[in-house]
Design goal:
By secondary structure, the protein is an alpha/beta fold. The protein has 24 helices and 21 strands.
Length: 673
């Protein structure tokens, strides 16, 4: 099929471009044709002086005259010329980097220039314009603007994609005819062609809307079909009837009272245990909201029924923290074991043997739990902490024997994301912090005077026996990224800013044992300041940490900043978060100020989603979450419509036999399932 042709075999381009395309995940004709533009712009020709729009990008048509090169006082070369428009008016032209095309251009050649036109010292001037010698895919019409990653530019993409549009006819139509008819959608081939090479603004938006709907519809069909199949086929061998009396006894043992949100979530999980099908629930709550104790309480119900519980954590240090918590929570009759990569081989063998015989009631661990020879006798509940850090297939291993699965995440999930990617799960939200916790005072720090005051305040906190997290975006210095790094900041803080304080550093390239040792020493109060990368986003609790400093905070999404902030304020002491702005004039300062106003992860996630998109919402791409090419997660109407149609189609034909193209796409596409 032509859509599967390799780009390296059909494009005339350089190896550097092919390598970059591969890095972007674009290796076939289909993948490049599905690399959709983010917007369009008009390049309608302006040949008359009175039609020029000052302060905007214009496409000017005329004769280029008197081209010359000049040296600036600093020795740089620039190009100058005059453009004579069709009505005889003259425009000054300047290039700060001379285009290659001008080197052999004859005087008074007809050209098309695309660039911003402004008034400069009383003269009308177009600066750094593109130069075209004839009408093409770049001038004289609407043109597409793509996400760029040099050397892959919008100009390069327009030229290459124009030569591949003949293949759009091979795109299969996966939307059912009844959807196309009711919504008056373009057919798939026409939509792909028009989004790259639109005849009008209206048809470009129509193509985008149709492709966005298909993208969300396909996800909805996949997740809902998975859910319907699971509910039809799965039986619940670990059904536990809800009994409030032992639950009340469990709650009385706690040294604190659960919040209303915690109680509601626990009740939802316990009611799930009564259903005909296994639970498949996602619990979302900010760092410190008390998700783990809810998981322990749910686990207690399964243990009373004679079943086993597994708790899967993404890091060894978090697994150890859960293990320590479980030992305190459960009575001595409940056997709890820890299984991680650092457990000696002999001990691992013993744990797995006792797990098979049912002597171990609770197993807490990392990926080591997912090995083939880790076999449970009767796993009733699997709890997956920070579920996005595990692949979907890894998470599914724990559910293979129809165990109830409760996933937990501190990543705020916008309502629209819950409608799409997590549509196959029931969702509970813990949106309250435990009583006694104070809101963390957050301030954006963007000038030297405030930095000085901030450092004095931090020193005073250390004097009061408080501890400090100091987060940097990078591990080492980078030529490509202008941002603070752990090693340089560690030296600066330890030697210049706080020379009398004890400072350590932590980053992701360190070995697990080294990281665990540093965090344990920090918890034991052996040093005052921990300079770290984002590895502290998920980690051990440090009760005495009351200050979080985040360098180059403009480089992080609000949701990730909120998770960093959640690492402090874990007790009744007042805590503080300082958001350092790397570029003092950075326009992101306004965005960051929402951290001062809002303390709700959900609210911040919605702001992040609107301003920066889903990739930024999660800081890095999460396992299990797709990259949307057209869909807009703020478009609730489209999301809801796609979901309604997916439900309707699946109720009519769960096997999708009437829709072979859709079934083939859903069954073959393993983007995130």
């Amino acid at each position: 099929m032509s859509l599967n042709f390799l780009l390296k075999n059909v494009l005339r381009t350089t190896s550097a471009h092919v390598k970059k395309l591969d890095g972007l995940g674009l290796s076939t004709v289909r993948e490049l044709l599905e690399y959709f533009p983010r917007k369009i712009e008009s390049t309608d020709l302006v040949g008359n002086f009175l039609e020029i729009r000052l302060g905007e990008k214009n496409t000017l048509s005329g004769k280029l005259c008197d081209f010359r090169k000049e040296k600036t006082p600093r020795g740089k070369m620039l190009g100058r010329a005059a453009l004579v428009l069709d009505d005889g008016a003259t425009i000054d032209v300047i290039w700060f980097q001379i285009p290659y095309i001008l080197r052999n251009l004859r005087d008074e050649s007809r050209v098309f220039l695309v660039g911003k036109v402004d008034r400069n010292f009383g003269k009308i001037q177009i600066s750094n314009p593109e130069v075209h010698l004839d009408k093409n895919v770049h001038v004289g019409r609407l043109r597409a603007i793509y996400p760029e990653s040099p050397p892959i530019t919008s100009k390069w993409l327009r030229e290459k994609i124009a030569g591949l549009l003949m293949f759009v006819k091979d795109f299969p139509e996966i939307l059912p005819e009844e959807i196309l008819a009711e919504k008056n959608f373009l057919k798939k081939p026409a939509a792909v062609k028009q989004i790259h090479h639109p005849d009008s603004g209206e048809i470009w938006y129509a193509a985008k809307k149709r492709l966005a709907f298909e993208e969300v519809f396909e996800i909805q069909v996949r997740v809902l079909r998975e859910k319907f199949f699971r509910e039809q086929a799965a039986k619940n061998p670990f059904r536990v009837k809800f009994d409030p009396e032992p639950v009340k006894k469990d709650l009385k043992k706690l040294p604190f009272e659960l919040t209303t949100a915690q109680k509601k979530t626990l009740f939802q999980i316990l009611k799930d245990f009564e259903l005909d099908r296994p639970a498949h629930r996602l619990v979302q709550g900010d760092v410190g909201s008390g998700k783990t104790v809810v998981a322990f309480l749910a686990g207690a119900a399964q243990i009373r029924a004679g079943n086993q519980v597994a708790i899967l954590a993404p890091t060894e240090i978090l697994a150890q923290q859960h293990f320590a918590g479980a030992l305190k929570f459960f009575d001595e009759e409940t056997r709890v074991e820890l299984l991680t990569g650092s457990v000696p081989a002999k001990k691992k063998e013993e744990i797995k043997k006792n797990l098979r015989t049912g002597q171990i009631q609770i197993l807490i661990g990392t990926h080591a739990i997912l090995t083939e020879n880790t076999v449970f006798k009767n796993l009733g509940l699997a709890v997956v902490d920070e579920q996005h850090r595990f692949g979907v297939r890894q998470r599914a291993i724990l559910a293979e024997n129809h165990a109830h699965v409760v996933a937990m995440t501190a990543t705020p999930i916008p309502r629209t994301l819950a409608l799409t990617v997590y549509g196959d799960q029931d969702i509970s939200v813990i949106d309250e912090l435990p009583p006694g916790r104070k809101k963390i005072i957050t301030r954006v720090v963007a000038d030297e005077k405030t930095i000085t005051l901030c450092n004095r305040f931090i020193d005073d906190q250390i004097e009061k026996k408080r501890q400090i997290f100091w987060v940097c975006p990078l591990i080492d210095e980078s030529d490509k990224i202008e941002a603070k790094n752990v090693h340089d900041e560690y030296d600066r803080i330890a030697q210049i800013v706080f020379p009398k304080r004890n400072v350590e550093f932590l980053h992701g390239k360190m070995k697990p044992k080294e990281k665990n040792a540093v965090m344990q020493r920090f918890k034991n109060r052996e040093f005052d300041i921990l300079v770290s990368t984002s590895v502290i986003e998920v980690g051990v609790d440090i009760p005495d940490a009351t200050v979080m400093v985040i360098e180059n905070s403009e480089r992080f999404g609000l949701s990730q900043l909120h998770q960093f902030r959640g690492r402090i304020g874990r007790n009744e002491m007042q805590s503080y978060c300082f958001l350092m702005v790397g570029k003092k004039d950075d326009a992101q300062k306004t965005r960051l100020q929402s951290m001062e106003k809002f303390h709700s992860g959900h609210k911040l996630s919605e702001i992040d989603l609107e301003l920066r998109g889903m990739g930024e919402l999660y800081g890095v791409r999460q396992s299990g979450i797709p990259d949307f090419k057209c869909a807009d997660l703020s478009d609730v109407e489209t999301l809801q419509s796609a979901r309604d149609w997916a439900v309707k189609i699946l109720k009519e034909d769960l096997s999708l036999e009437k829709f072979p193209a859709l079934r083939k796409k859903v069954d073959s596409d393993e983007t995130f399932f």
